[in-house]
Model the fold of this input.
Amino acid sequence: MAAWDNGAGEEMVAEQSRSVRGIELLFHVARSDGPVTANELAEMSALPKATVYRLCDQLRNAGFLRRHAGARGYVPGPKLLELSSSVLAARSQQVYSHAVLEGLAEEIGEACNYAVPDGTAMVYWDRVETRWPLRFQLPIGSRVPLHCTANGKLYLSSLPEEQRLRLIGELKLERHTANTITSPEALREALDEITEQGYGTDNEEFIDGMVALAMPVTDSSGRMLAGVAFHAPVQRMTLDDAKQYLPLLRQAVEKLSGQLRAGESEGTAGDGASDGVRQLAP
Done:
């Protein structure tokens, strides 16, 4: 059995290595001013010519490269052009959403974040810090639990009942503070309340002394793709105090949802932009 596992591992490493080499060739073609021959790609990548020819054939068959009609060499294919369009669309959405977060943080005076669901956690995709010296360190890329954060509970509440119950069953419901919900029954009740009120709450459930409110960013079908939240120390703001900013939070998520839906509409026209926008959330 051990020998079989080692063989599978070596095969996986080899496959990953081939994928990285293929991406490297695409990078060289994409940044070139004109067609690039296989010999030139071999020099740029320090790969054997036979390997370059084989990879270029695979990439051409997959639509990522094409042979230039009037000259020797390869140029970006339709799939690579579609990918670049998606990346630009995603970048455009990121710039826009960050500007919205900055405006929201300025108006509220507290840190704001944009989080997307990833399995059994929410991931901070973007964040704008508060100017106050007293702040909570939750940088971009942080993974936070679903059961005890405003964005996490909001996401759970947005799921169809069967999917929600299944996901709750997968959660560990670990205690982080005295206020953390640690029983499936209590969590289901809290999610029902969030569904009714339309926003997620964190009343010192994840970090002692921190409160937060969150609202969803949705697509045209109403599905939650991400959440925007702001949080503050209880020394500056109680949970009840925070609710006065719900109209500002609602305006922010409406702007972001509108931008995402605009990307969807453009995508239906066949430009592939919506795929890039959707990469911001599952």
